[in-house]
């Protein structure tokens, strides 16, 4: 059966989301109505197997859908990304017969919202280390104390997937990956007032002994780089869906530039700017940048779905596609601003918002330094000494 993105994200739904996007950006509010409509459309469970109540899509299809959603509202797409990361990791587990995340699939099928609590201030190890303290409990659970930053979906999540460092168990140190509920041990700061991607409401989350039940402790692994499925699952799904969001931003910027130059008329020639050779060259350059990315995302997402074995190359491939997508998107938005003219400088212009939103891409792992270090290590080996 041919995959039809409009079956999961109909045009009328996208139109409503697009109409609300500037309001949430201006008012710095979370798009609650977007979430409700997406939940009603079954979007939160697109990666959940049919047998567990979902749509049974693969990462390849989810990447296409996230590109489509980002053309309407980048911040909504980025926020939903974090939920899809966990359902995507659950799919990676189930596809490889690794138990432990069935509760994520069942919860998503019921409409629960899963947020991503990995980022920490000053922790450039990201997945490979944590500043959050994980204390083992007598019942097999863990209590987490620390601060997580960039917690998208902050106002609405029902479960937070996170990690912390256990330094007290006999086999310590161990990185512990688990899920917690929203309780009095969790404080969400109202501190999200940013340049762009404002509707994600990725607020700071403080944990003071927040407990994860034993059945929600997913993995305990050694700190540092690891072949464990939790590391591969998070890294692959996170990087590919991030690349998808920013590729969708670029698509929208390109479409807006084309639309604008077909409407604007030159006083000098009497022709639309679409007939200006310089403008045509700029539009062509934008398209050459943009069209290289969707096939790359599709190919790598399909490889994850089909369990291709890229060995140690996986991390270079995944960090590379995310890095290229962000660089490409920023270049395309820059060119779109120049092409559309001075009107795009006004804050009410959609390109102005895209210009701010696209800047967030550089802060998401893998950042440019990490992506280049990963590629260099793969080709040249690690630094000596």
TrEMBL record:
Keywords: Oxidoreductase. Residues 16-84 form the Acyl-CoA dehydrogenase/oxidase N-terminal domain. Residues 241-364 form the Acyl-CoA dehydrogenase C-terminal domain. Gene3D superfamilies: Acyl-CoA dehydrogenase/oxidase, N-terminal domain (1.10.540.10), Butyryl-CoA Dehydrogenase, subunit A, domain 2 (2.40.110.10), Butyryl-CoA Dehydrogenase, subunit A, domain 3 (1.20.140.10). The keyword Oxidoreductase applies. The keyword Oxidoreductase applies. It comes from the Bacteria. InterPro entries: Acyl-CoA_DH_C (IPR013107), Acyl-CoA_Oxase/DH_mid-dom_sf (IPR046373), AcylCo_DH-like_C (IPR036250), AcylCoA_DH/ox_N (IPR013786), AcylCoA_DH/ox_N_sf (IPR037069), AcylCoA_DH/oxidase_NM_dom_sf (IPR009100). This is Alkylation response protein AidB-like acyl-CoA dehydrogenase. It comes from Microbacterium murale.
């Amino acid at each position: 059966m041919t995959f039809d993105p409009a079956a999961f994200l109909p045009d009328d739904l996208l139109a409503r989301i697009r109409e609300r996007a500037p309001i949430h950006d201006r008012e710095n509010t979370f798009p609650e109505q977007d979430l409700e409509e997406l939940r009603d459309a079954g979007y939160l469970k697109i990666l959940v197997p049919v047998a567990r109540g979902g749509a049974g899509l693969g990462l390849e299809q989810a990447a296409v859908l996230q590109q489509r959603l980002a053309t309407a509202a980048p911040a909504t797409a980025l926020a939903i990304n974090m939920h899809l990361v966990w359902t995507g990791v659950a799919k990676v587990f189930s596809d490889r017969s690794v138990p432990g995340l069935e509760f994520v699939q069942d919860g998503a099928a019921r409409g629960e919202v899963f947020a991503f609590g990995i980022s920490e201030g000053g922790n450039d190890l990201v997945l490979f280390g944590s500043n959050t303290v994980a204390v083992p409990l007598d019942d097999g659970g863990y209590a987490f104390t620390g601060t997580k930053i960039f917690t998208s979906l902050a106002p609405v999540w029902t479960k937070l997937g996170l990690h912390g460092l256990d330094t007290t168990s006999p086999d310590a140190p161990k990185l512990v990956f688990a899920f917690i509920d929203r309780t009095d041990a969790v404080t969400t700061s109202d501190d999200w007032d940013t340049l762009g991607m404002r509707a994600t409401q990725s607020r700071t989350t403080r944990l003071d002994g927040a407990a994860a039940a034993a059945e929600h402790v997913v993995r305990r692994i050694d700190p540092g780089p690891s072949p464990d499925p939790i590391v591969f699952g998070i890294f692959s799904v996170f990087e590919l869906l991030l690349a998808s969001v920013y590729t969708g931003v670029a698509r929208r910027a390109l479409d807006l530039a084309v639309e604008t130059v077909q409407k604007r008329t030159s006083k000098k020639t009497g022709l639309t700017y679409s007939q200006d050779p310089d403008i045509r060259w700029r539009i062509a350059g934008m398209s050459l940048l943009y069209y290289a990315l969707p096939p790359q995302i599709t190919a790598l997402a399909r490889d994850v779905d089909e369990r291709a074995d890229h060995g140690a190359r996986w991390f270079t491939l995944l960090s590379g596609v995310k890095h290229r997508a962000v660089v490409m998107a920023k270049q395309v938005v820059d060119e779109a601003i120049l092409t559309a003219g001075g009107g795009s400088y006004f804050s009410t212009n959609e390109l102005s918002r895209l210009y701010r939103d696209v800047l967030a891409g550089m802060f998401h792992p893998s950042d440019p330094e990490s992506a280049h270090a990963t590629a260099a290590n793969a080709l040249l080996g690690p630094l000596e000494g």
